[in-house]
Amino acid sequence: GQQLTGDDIAAIYEVIQAGWLRLEAKSLDWLLTMGASLSDRQVTDMMAHLEEQQQDYEKEYLGRSERKYRKETDDRLLDSMQDYLGRLDKSQRNRLREATTNLQRSDNVWLEERAAWLERLTLIMRREPGWQQQIRDAIANRDETTAQAYQETFWHNMEIIFSAIADVLNSRNAKQDKRLRNELSD
């Protein structure tokens, strides 16, 4: 059959991403209505929970050694591929390991970006007049407000992952192909 490329996987990712953005847009009205109905205490509690989650993530992720980071990233990618293909052979696992070796470490820039978003959200959730539109604007303009370092790391890593996924899919055997088709039809 036809060989997949990293660009093919990127195109599939774009379709999935577009679907996610449509779902996000549809659920935003409901979330804003719910946000308007919360008491000040509930908003304070929600923001405190998000801040606590941020601190938990920082402890969990930033304290990892380089070796542990690579191992966890490798395990996550392997698990994801095996969800669709079943057990991978040695060369397929090696291809994924090669990919994760070439990834730029992203936990730090992701957490910085998440902290910046929480800061913006905390200000907006004071719920002064026009706050719903501020949320809409913040979401709509997030590509412009996302740090350059985060975007560069994200896309660098995605290109490597897309290429590795294509290579593994191209090397799938008949049993893996059957599993993949069943997973996708579900």
What does this structure look like?
With 186 residues, this protein is an all-alpha fold. The protein is built from nine helices and no strands. The chain has helices at residues 6-37, 40-62, 66-85, 90-102, 107-124, 131-140, 142-145, 148-170, 174-185. It is globular. 11% of the residues are buried.
Mean pLDDT: 94
Tell me the major beta sheet: none
Structural class: mainly alpha
- Helix content range of the residues, please? over 70%
Unreliable sequence segments: none
Residue fraction in strands? under 5%
Number of strands: 0
Which word captures the global form? globular
List keywords for this structure.
9 helices; 186 residues; 83% helix; single chain; mainly alpha
SSE blueprint and pairings:
Layout: H1 6-37, H2 40-62, H3 66-85, H4 90-102, H5 107-124, H6 131-140, H7 142-145, H8 148-170, H9 174-185
Helix pairs in contact: 1-8, 2-5, 3-4, 4-8
Task: Put the structure in a nutshell.
By secondary structure, the protein is an all-alpha fold. 83% of the residues lie in helices and 0% in strands.
